Amino acid sequence: MQRLNIVITGHVDHGKSTLIGRLLADTDSLPQGKLESVKKMCENNARPFEYAFLLDALADEQKQGITIDSARVFFQSKKREYIIIDAPGHIEFLKNMISGASRAEAALLLIDAKEGVAENSKRHGMLLSLLGIKQVAIVVNKMDLVNFSEIAFTKLKVEYSEYLATLGIKSDIFIPISAREGVNLIEHSASTPWYKGPTVLEILDSFKSVEEKENDDFRMPLQDVYKFTRDNDDRRIYAGTVTSGELNVGDEVVFYPSLKRSKVASIESFNTEVKTSVKESEAIGFTLQTQIYVRNGDVVARADQSAPKVSNRFEANLFWLGAKPLELDKPYKIKIGSAQSTIYLEEIKRVIDGDTLDRADEPSVGRHEAACVIFRVHDLVAMEQFGENQKLGRFVIVDEYDIAGGGIITEVLEQYTTRRTKALHVNDVLVDKAGESAEFEEELFALLRKHFPHQFN
């Protein structure tokens, strides 16, 4: 069955947890007895039952009435399975939203019909734009508080559509709902006879999953290499999660950026039947006909398909969450796919202020601001533009052990060339041929480790 990752976002108190809780309850997706036990708990504590309590399991969250951490819940319609990510709406928890939204293929953005478009509604729309999430439906909640007024709904739709247009998001999908009352979630409601569009469940099922894409090139970020020695088992298993495409036994694969290659001898997976092929989203391992030495973070591609781009510079849309402003030439840590390296800010092209949402005149990126920037990476990394491969086109930045920002790669730029990268580039052909001789391979890597200890030790 297909699976789709969806982020649920919006301003605090606009009803995200209530929406998810009601969807789970109305589609019988809750564990047996869960709904009854939560209702009993509310009764014992003399509290009115809320569907949000089905998700807000942390005591602090129930006391404060806000969702503190991102929660992943599983939901299943007749068409497919969903992982719905409840992203926090409060400004202080945008850091959690970065990690939640980075896994999303589509989004539901909630707006309170009575309160209208809040500043965080704009921030979250901007964040979805920066993360490149194009499948977005705007869910206008709490319509019961405005007597299910078509005029109120239309006014909000016009206002927010104009704002989304400034971000390059064209969304004609606006759904009037009352999450608490279950209006227009699963079935159309008599409360909104003027609304002829899809329900929330119908729009979820209409979103396209990456698994529905065909003929994508194979990509797998290498997470680890496992070698077994027990009972004379000398296999090396190259493990990771397939981000796109398909791999078959017998396919020739290339590891980037090292350019080493071999043919797939077998596909390995835990506690399953023997496989001869794997597809997107599967966590697998494979063995090679010629065992080669590669490093974690390499990207595996098929030799008969297009190659990922390899560079140490890229242009990106960035959302900054660090307590300190983003600084030029300061070292930060970056993660792209399974690759990790040191990164430096090379140029700030333009900035959008996170509070006023206006373009800033001075080139500095502060907390909760968005920007178009150019980064330089310490090492050569295999990467993709977000439009070509979402999972290899997203990144997260860490500053002193804290998530400080995230975004998407909009363009892979020409390499920043140093003496070290020139030397590695000259040796690309040698590295490619190294698989033909294990002895030559070890000699080559001994030489590289001697001259470039930071890179090869």
From TrEMBL:
Signal peptide residues on this chain, from the entry's feature table: none
CDD domains reported for this sequence: CysN_ATPS
SUPFAM superfamilies found in the cross-reference section: EF-Tu/eEF-1alpha/eIF2-gamma C-terminal domain, P-loop containing nucleoside triphosphate hydrolases, Translation proteins
Record EC number: 2.7.7.4
Gene Ontology MF: a single term: GTP binding
UniProt KW keywords: ATP-binding, GTP-binding, Nucleotide-binding, Nucleotidyltransferase, Transferase
Matching Pfam families: GTP-eEF1A_C, GTP_EFTU
GO biological process, one term: sulfur compound metabolic process
Residue ranges of domain Tr-type G in the record: 1-213
PROSITE patterns, per database record: G_TR_1, G_TR_2
First-tier enzyme category under EC: transferase
Identification of the protein by name: sulfate adenylyltransferase
